[in-house]
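User: Predict the structure for this protein chain, please.
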Amino acid sequence: MVKQGDLLAVIDPRPYQVALEQAQGQLLQAQSQLAQAKSDLIRYQTLAKQDSIALQQVDTQNSLVSQYEGLVKTDQAAIDSANLNLTYCHITAPVDGRVGLRMVDAGNYVTPGDANGLVVLTEIKPITVIFTLPEDNIPAVAERLRAGATLRVTAFDRAQTKRLATGVLSTIDNQVDPSTGTFRLRAQFANDDEGLFPNQFVNIRMLLDVERDAILIPTSGIERGQQGTYVYVVKPDKTVTARPITLGPTEGEKAVVTAGLALGENIVVDGADKLKEGMEVTIQTPAATAKPGAAAGAAGAPHRHRHPAGSGNGAPPASGAQN
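Assistant: Here is the predicted structure, written as structure tokens:
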């Protein structure tokens, strides 16, 4: 780990030190010539006022003074350039971060065009993650950002079982990738415990909004047909009827129902492919068996839950952490 300004490497400064001394010598010579030319100009101007010399000689000397002034500036620029090269010989860290394995050893010859450079410095604290969401989520994300909301972002490991870090959304990209139909977002993490590593693969969940007292059902109970999205509702007489529903956000194996179901109604979550309108079902428990002649189906009741909407389901995994 290094701090901004820490010395990382030194390039042999001797050639640039020699160039600096040479430029300093040339500057002294030019300054001496300039001083002599100015002194002669003063004398020539005095003699010209006395009509002792031609005015052309004064003009020539004045031109010579200007030439030496230009030479002094040129030599001073050469000194500044040599000093700059000496400064560049000392490679310092531009930001706080961690240096990787060095690309060169002491004594190696390096040039400004080397593709690998001397060492790779990555910023660890903070660190950013680039991830993607479907373009259909753009209006919802943009609306929350315009409202000044701080959107929490959580990074999980490849298996999505271990939470690595928690951060906030910092910005979104200005265009959609037409090949994937997604847009990119950047989240920033403090990463004080260094749970995220540069170029690491992570999965991202972003909390866009919270729907309170939402009715949730298992996604296994959702059917789709010509009439749209529906579920089989178990009536009190244990017969089923198809009920159209309107779905809200989906996360994992649960989905929000915004219309079509009431709290406490039972729906079929298993064996729905065997059902028809009005068929009788048996609500199974672990110890129950199906009645003869009845269609078997496991049923469950929708329940209320505080659901984090818009968590980015269906989006490609995050591309990885980077500085």
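The CA atoms of residues 66 and 124 lie 55 Å apart.
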